[in-house]
Amino acid sequence: MRRPFHDGAIGLQPVGRRPVISQPEAEDRRAKGAPHTSLGQRPRITANQVRALKARFIFISQALSQVIIHIILSFRQAFSSSLPEALVVVEPRGTSGYQILMPKITASAPVLLVSDVVASANYFRDSAGFQYKEFYGDPPDFCICQRDGHYLMLAQVDDPGQIVPFWKIREKMWNAYFWVDDADGLYEEMKTKGAKMDYGPCTQPYGVREFGIQDLDGHDIGFGQVLG
């Protein structure tokens, strides 16, 4: 089948094929500063054109990120009465725009029910190295103890008979557990200070060097060092 032709400004050319540039026309283009084009070839993309495309892409990306941030902030403002205050946090991130940071849990604190919060806080301070700054309530009924950035809360109850350590409900179960970097060293420290040692130190089948103490109300507190 013969390919159809049309009569264009540059002569007869096959339909759908790129026109071939004549020698005089190519020389005329070079004289006018147009990009160099070989006869019958497509023009090449210069390094400046590549840099311009990259800059445009970055600009568009940053513009889109601004739009997304605006939508998120508008969403927070519209629903601030029904959503947590720190739904998302938006902060600058160098020259690449912004990043969205989701809320994080920064610490934890087991809570022990105790019959005498002052006596219990002093026990953990003197025997286990947990310090405290103050008592809460009048008379005192609550205290926050901490050691090495980890916390233990003590809450006094009116009826000591309501205190039931977990090990009485499930065998060998702690009320609180702390991971440590030297179980044997910490065991010797607490034993020397007069803590009531519950068990250990021993190496458990799950690969932890472990020991436990009891507080004044019979709660088991475990300390474990991951081995290997």
Please provide a written account of the structure:
The protein has 228 residues and is α+β, with helices and mostly antiparallel strands. It folds into two domains: 47-101; 111-226, 2,3-Dihydroxybiphenyl 1,2-Dioxygenase, domain 1, CATH 3.10.180. The protein has four helices and twelve strands, in the order E-E-H-H-E-E-E-H-E-E-E-E-H-E-E-E. A hairpin with a 5-residue loop joins strand 6 (131-136) and strand 7 (142-147). The N and C termini lie far apart (78 Å). The mean pLDDT is 82.
Quaternary structure annotation:
single chain
- Largest beta sheet, briefly? 4 strands, mixed
CATH class of the largest domain: Alpha Beta
Element-level helix/strand string: EEHHEEEHEEEEHEEE
CATH homologous superfamily designation of the largest domain: 2,3-Dihydroxybiphenyl 1,2-Dioxygenase, domain 1
Count of distinct strands: 12
Distance between the termini: 78 Å
- Work out the helicity level: 25-40%
Radius of gyration over C-alpha positions, nearest whole angstrom: 37 Å
Largest sheet, order of strands side by side? 5-8-7-6
- Total count of helical runs of at least 4 residues: 4
Shape: elongated
What share of the residues does DSSP label as strand, in percent?
A: 25-35%
Q: What would the average pLDDT be, to the nearest integer?
A: 82
How many discrete domains? 2
